[in-house]
Specification:
By secondary structure, the chain is an alpha/beta fold. 24% of the residues lie in helices and 21% in strands.
């Protein structure tokens, strides 16, 4: 029997936000409207929804700027449970925009099922005069029920992005997300999904000196059962940068886990200030794993011949931090 059920998981965010004044798209409170209420009006405007069964469940109700590991674990466990349910064909997750790319990337690394997991969001609260959340959610449901959908993706403003390439690129406008150089996976037009390319598999990144790589078979159990991940911090190279922040991070703090990983957001093509490199050498000598990314919004680091340190990774700094933390879980 064909699976015809979609599970919708709510985590809060602007899509569930409310303001005291309908025209206020800034001074609202995120995570106010239950996911069941977000879903209810859509069946009236999409006849194809009557062909499916829908189950809505609230996993969290927060502003995504405050996303935490506990919520990620609960979300991943709910998605895996849905994947083990023979009746569930896909999962849709409502989420805030601020950390959407991080949650999508985390899920793409730890989930083992190829079933569609579609995250969606809104830049305007549910109380806005013209909210974008209802259309985004409707588009996400269209993608989730599309026979060609697979893996983790993000749907916003009529565009489908992969978890590997998606990034929030604008602070305010409704089409705030970009897929960078790789381009979007698809567009959604009046419920019809027009595919441009297949959703790529999650990247697998091996940490030097560490036997486990980043991938679902390597990290799933540890990622969702470990109470605290290894502490990985991000620092930025910039004009006038020095090693003071790195040295401060290396100092023990009572009650705080020691830093075991550092991601450096380098300038341009991943370059790092000369005054910062000695401190990174000190960190490496103390056993801290250091990765190098770029603070540029587009492109990946292209290294020249010879050994370049710290090692470059083809990820944004925020995604590199997640990948490194997961790799260091072993």
């Amino acid at each position: 029997m064909e699976k015809k059920k979609v599970l919708i998981l709510g985590t809060g965010g602007t899509i569930a936000g409310k303001a005291t004044v309908a025209g206020d798209n800034v001074g609202y409170k995120a995570g106010e409207v239950p996911v069941q209420e977000l879903l209810a009006p859509l069946a009236k405007v999409a006849s194809w929804m009557s062909d499916w069964q829908w189950e809505a469940r609230q996993v969290a109700q927060l502003d995504s700027k405050d996303m935490d590991l506990a919520t990620w674990r609960a979300l991943a466990q709910a998605v895996v449970a849905a994947g083990n349910d023979p009746d569930v064909a896909a999962v849709v997750i409502t989420h805030g925009t601020d950390t959407l790319e991080e949650t999508a990337f985390f899920l793409s690394l730890v989930l083992q099922s190829s079933n569609p997991v579609v995250l969606t969001c809104a830049m305007r609260p549910a109380s806005a005069l013209v909210p974008d959340g209802p259309q985004n959610l409707l588009d996400a449901l269209a993608v989730a029920t599309n026979p060609h959908a697979q893996g983790v993706c993000v749907v916003a403003a009529g565009t489908v992005h992969s978890a590997q390439s998606v990034a929030k690129a604008h602070t305010y406008r409704v089409d705030a997300f970009s897929s960078g150089d790789s381009g979007p996976l698809a567009s959604v037009e009046e419920g019809r999904v027009r595919w441009f390319r297949a959703n790529p598999s999650a990247q697998r990144l091996t940490v030097a000196g560490n036997e486990s790589d980043v991938g679902p078979d390597a990290v799933w159990q540890r990622a969702v059962t470990t109470a605290a991940w290894p502490r990985v911090e991000m620092i930025t190279s910039h004009a006038g940068a020095d090693g003071a922040l790195v040295h401060a991070l290396l100092q023990p703090v009572p009650g705080v886990s020691p830093v075991v990983g550092l991601v450096v957001a380098g300038t341009g093509n991943g370059t790092v200030h000369a005054s910062l490199l000695p401190a990174l050498d000190t960190a490496r000598a103390q056993g801290v794993v250091v990765w190098r990314s770029t603070r540029c919004a587009f492109g990946q680091i292209v290294d020249g011949p010879g050994t370049v340190w710290p090692p470059a990774v083809p990820l944004s700094p925020v995604k590199a931090r997640i990948a490194l933390a997961l790799a260091l879980l072993s």
